[in-house]
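This protein record is not my work; I was only asked to verify it. Would you go through it and say whether the fold makes sense for this chain? Here is the record exactly as it was handed to me.
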Amino acid sequence: MAAAIGRVRRRRAGELAARQLPVLLDHVAWALRSGASVPQAFVRAADRLDGPLHDELAPCAASLRDGRSFDAALARWLSSSARRRDDPRRVIVGALRIAVVAGGAPAAALEGVAASVRDREAVRRESRALTAQAV
């Protein structure tokens, strides 16, 4: 029974973290517009979040504060959090890596990724609801 409760809690925490991913990108975009670099914006955004996504990102933000590379910090986040090949974290990490290399105006691009992640999550929730109704 305790194992089942633990699985349910982990699943719910994972679902909440997935819903917070677009908010992470919104915060990164806001910080970029205020003049922060992409790694600085990521740390600021991670610090502003709460709940499961904050817990997920805390080690990544700490490693950036300790002077590790942004790419290494993102790789650490992916290895600890992205369990499925279609996990939206993979798209987010790709967008953040491109933002570092490409320069320009990455805030708008990250907001576009946030909108895409929101849409994808809405479709996933709708699909689950329809599946539950069909049973």
